[in-house]
Design brief:
Trigger factor, domain 2, 4-stranded antiparallel β-sheet, alpha+beta, Chitinase A, domain 3, about 20% strand, Alpha-Beta Plaits
Length: about 450
């Protein structure tokens, strides 16, 4: 086989492929073998029909050759793709130019390939992840949760603040419905919990016992009610004094200092794990945002969308659910589901193009040895022989796809090592904190 590539407009290339007579002869033999298993000729068992008899049955050598070309053309094209290392993203337009009847078979294949984009600004990329640091105030909040189990309620005569416990009488009357009004006496409400209706917590703060609050709020989808609240008593939680004696008696620790350090350490390790888990996705999304203005090839987005839809269907099937049931449970129309999948697909395509750009611009192409090591590792994970996987990649034209995946893994590692991570306040995070191993067990 001989294959050459020329560039065509609109991100397309043309493959000019020639198949020599020996390859064509093997394709004809394969076609004869396949047809011999399928056709029924009187006097011969299937699979035992002589080639000359089969040719006569089909109507001549030309008919067998045509069948061979029809069967082998996808493989010829896949091998040409593998040999030229082009990266098609759509079905090819194939045109046989010579050899349909005899001689060297030649064909052209015009196909859209993955675009190469330029990415700027990635060396100064700053992405936000959760902070791995823990403040004293955050530790104090956790300690107070332990103290609250031993708290007492104390009446207060002051404006209400978040966290107070308010005893109230409540009258709830739905508007434009036949539902009977609801009355509750001495209802105890924790300010800030948000369990009554939207707006209550904002309005009640600053009020005092003896006052009334009236507002309209939702009680369900499309249903509004009038809430009339009579505030009768305001109490605050008085926490026990934090002493070594109280800590030893009520917790697993023997002193305040030990408790504080244990809680802080547990929180720090959890925070580091959360930050580490966010690193890769945050870096990839940040990188892809640099291509926000790049127009994505519809073929790539369509393929990714279809694959995601297929994966969703497969996962639902494993759970013995249908797509229709899933849409009902998630309250989505088919159009909304497809729109969501397409948006996710577009993000994935943008990440893919950004990583490929990073590979080119930072010279991160993998060596043959790196590709081979990854191929062996992948084959082991699939429980197949490496030679089988290698042959399959070439036969299906996915050699460049596999090589690109290895390259993107290198690019992802480079990105994570070079991006600047910041906390939600925009403060740079010390890379040493993110490098710590937090694999030891700790309470969730």
């Amino acid at each position: 086989m001989r294959a050459t590539v020329t560039t065509v407009d609109n991100n397309k290339v043309k493959l000019a492929v020639e198949i020599d007579e020996n390859e064509m002869a093997r394709a004809i033999d394969e076609a004869a073998k396949k047809l011999g298993q399928q056709v029924t000729i009187k006097g011969f068992r299937k699979g035992k029909v002589p080639k000359n008899v089969l040719i006569a049955h089909l109507g001549g050598v030309g008919a067998l050759r045509a069948e061979a070309i029809r069967d082998a053309l996808p493989n010829f094209y896949a091998h040409a793709v593998a040999d030229t290392l082009i990266d098609p993203i759509a079905q090819p337009d194939i045109n046989i130019t010579a050899g349909e009847d005899e001689g060297v078979l030649a064909f052209d294949a015009e196909v859209e390939v993955r675009p190469e984009v330029q990415i700027d600004g990635y060396r100064a990329l700053r992405v936000t992840i959760p902070s791995p640091l823990v403040t004293d105030d955050e530790v104090n909040v956790q300690i107070d949760r332990f103290r609250e189990t031993d708290a007492v309620l104390v009446d207060v005569d002051r404006p209400i603040v978040t966290g107070d416990l308010v005893t109230m009488d409540a009258h709830v009357e739905q508007i434009a419905t036949d539902v009977e009004p609801l009355d509750m006496s001495d209802y105890m409400y924790t300010v800030g919990s948000g369990v009554i209706t939207d707006g209550v917590d904002e309005l009640i703060v600053g009020m005092r016992a003896g006052e009334e609050l009236k507002l309209n709020g939702n009680v369900g989808e499309g249903v509004v009610a009038t809430y009339q609240l009579t505030l009768k008593k305001v109490q605050e939680r008085e926490l026990p004094e934090l002493t070594d004696e109280w800590v030893e008696e009520n917790t697993e620790w023997t002193s305040e200092a030990e408790m504080r350090e244990a809680i802080a350490d547990q929180m720090r390790r959890r925070r580091v794990v959360e930050a580490q888990m966010s690193q890769r996705d945050a870096a990839l999304l940040g990188l892809s945002d640099l291509l926000a203005d790049v127009e994505l090839p519809p073929a790539l987005v369509d393929d990714e969308t279809n694959e995601r839809l297929h994966d969703l269907g497969h996962r639902l099937e494993q759970q013995k659910l249908t797509l229709e049931t899933f849409m009902q449970v998630t309250n989505q129309t088919p159009e909304q589901l497809l729109e969501t999948l397409r948006a996710d697909a577009a993000r994935a395509v943008r990440v893919d193009l950004a990583l490929r750009a990073l590979v080119r611009q930072e010279n991160l192409e993998p060596t043959d040895d790196e590709v081979e090591r990854e191929l062996v590792t992948t084959a082991e994970s699939m429980n197949v022989d490496a030679d089988v996987l290698r042959a399959n990649l070439r036969d299906t034209g996915r050699v460049i796809t596999f090589r690109s995946e290895v390259a993107k893994m290198k690019a992802s590692r480079w990105l994570m090592a070079n991006v600047i991570y910041v906390d939600p306040q925009g403060v740079d995070i010390d890379p040493a904190l993110l490098a710590k191993d937090q694999s030891s067990d700790f309470d969730a």
